[in-house]
Amino acid sequence: MPASFVWDPMNRAFTQTLRRVMLPSEHGATVALAEPIVLGLLLAPTGAGALLAASGVTGFWAGQAIRRAQRFGGPGRAIAIGFAIATAALAGAALSAGEQPLAVIVPLAVGAVLGMAFFHLSVKLGARALSVELIGALSPTGLAAAIVVSGGGTWAVAAWAWGLLALRQVGTIPYVRYRLGGKGTQASPAQWPVHAIHVAILLIVLAGWARGDLGITVVAAGVLLATRAVVGMAVPKLLPTAKAVGFSELGVGLAYLLLVWLGLQ
């Protein structure tokens, strides 16, 4: 086995790669992973849920290591194998400790398929293609549903948690791409698709509220996303830099999670 593929924490190249894998520069991917973990644990704070959350983190690190190995070679493959083993062990422990293990597998399997599609398409189309960004952002959203179900929550709550997180990503990525002016993307940004997506989000959450599935705070969450998009595109000087947009999205995401959590109680 080549030396670069050996799990060697004393090797400088290994430790540098490990640090970059665990602390990636792409903060959006980290936030996309954190949101389903936070929402899932707020809705169903259990030991099994914590194990699933940990498996999601190690799975994310395994994916980051694979990407680095594809681009730069080095010890990324060994790190990916190590984190993949940890992910399998943690997920297995969570399935043993939690409730409805067969039901938990469904969102995890969907996430795994989306994750593999993301890695395949990122090589073929580039990581900045819209479809690739969407698939990558959607892949961890099912983790919230898995955590809820493993903690004894109903499938109705789990499905809404999953769907509402997915809706946030579907609305956020086109908006952010527009705000960044298409930099690094393969298409010029336009406003109308962003507006259309947010209208659809509002209609979905209003339908859920009308059916009695969602609390009024979830409608407020949908209004928050739509307002952010309208104001952000109409008055771009409010957030003149990419860093400002990023911090704004972090705040919007935290508020959205809180409103969704309250509405799913």
Along the chain, the helix and strand elements come as HHHHHHHHHHH
Per DSSP, the total helix count is 11
What's the shape? globular
Largest sheet: none
Write up this protein:
This protein has 265 residues and is an all-alpha fold. Helix content is 77%, strand content 0%. The protein has helices spanning 12-22, 27-43, 47-72, 76-97, 101-125, 130-138, 142-150, 155-179, 191-210, 216-234, 242-263. The longest helix has 26 residues, at 47-72. The radius of gyration is 19 Å and the shape is globular. Mean pLDDT is 88; it is low at 1-5 and 183-188.
Blueprint of the fold:
Elements: H1 12-22, H2 27-43, H3 47-72, H4 76-97, H5 101-125, H6 130-138, H7 142-150, H8 155-179, H9 191-210, H10 216-234, H11 242-263
Helix pairs in contact: 1-3, 2-3, 2-7, 2-8, 2-11, 3-4, 3-7, 5-6, 5-7, 6-8, 7-8, 8-9, 8-10, 8-11, 9-10, 10-11
Give a brief rundown of this model.
This protein has helices spanning 12-22, 27-43, 47-72, 76-97, 101-125, 130-138, 142-150, 155-179, 191-210, 216-234, 242-263.
List the main descriptive attributes of the protein structure presented here.
single chain; 265 residues; mainly alpha; 11 helices; disordered N terminus
